[in-house]
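Researcher: Re-running this chain for the archive, since the previous output was lost when a drive failed. Same request as before.
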Amino acid sequence: MPLVDDSVDESTPWLISELQNRYVTTDHGFVLDNAFSNSPVWCLTCPGFERWFSEIEAIMNQTLGRRLAHASAESEEWRWSFAPPLPSKWIGQQKKRIKIVNEDWALRGLGQLTMLESTGSTATIMVANRNHTALAAGMANATWECIEEQRFRFQWSDRGVGETVVEVTSDPRTIPVPKAPIFPWEDVAGNVVKEQAVFDRARHEADGFWTVEGNRMMFLSRDLLMRFESLATPYIEADSRSTDSRTKWSGIVDSEQNIFWDAMAEASRRQFMASGELVLIASPEHWIDVGRRHLSLLGLGKVGSAIQTDDYGGVEIVAPALFHPAIAVGILLGCWERAEGRAAKATWSVDELGHRIKIESRREIAD
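Model: Regenerated structure tokens:
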């Protein structure tokens, strides 16, 4: 009778080595991209990102694909400004530049860039094995501008088989280069240490396509997320915030930003609840392990400490650093609701110790 070894390791050692060389972890639960000025990144599944993005669109009742694509283009242009210059030799220059781009994209799980046809002022390019079509379109356009060293307008179509086709047309306008995004909070600086990360179990599937335990993975930079937020908030009606919001964002005075953070947090909470993850909390100290599993492994931050605030599961969490407060608060709300079995609300603030998150029952409980 043949023996079946259930612990067979299907990961790809050379891929894991390359990922670990490029993406370093910190003692505050971050994953940093050392090819992009140590920018924090979120390591998540591609289906997970699609569901999270769709939840935001549904909550806000808006179509946000175009804004995501332009945020992606801005972030990708900003990213390549930190990279070494692309090859400038005339013979085979375009192919050599595309090769370098694809090597970068392969580790980031973005697919592969291919030029289908080009006339100088126009081009048709394709992203094969793409993760999300709007992300792929924006990144492809920005990368093509770097390759051709000129500005392009772009539009895209999705072939539905993991391929996004992008049509670019030369743009004679003078468009300023992107600037660094502004963060309305300050994290406590952490140290680079070797911590467990989800990509430690990566498996190569195809060029630009890798998985962990059968789930396709990708990296999303905080730079891109903040650009998406800044492009989406101007279209929000200031008086559209729910009077029964789950979270108070102390220090965030802009009403449109409050609404967008509400949407990101609620999308994160819903996605966590839909995952069916089991959370057991017997004492406040257990929140540290919850943070390690649901935040730190993905590069979203760390629960540094937690104290009980009432007799009904209320807790105050201190996190020295968070990838984005709205995403982390939404996940922690989901964890609390899974553990306590009832709806929760939260208050977020930031001080010299980092992020302070108070979570308690959403409704008052009679004594």
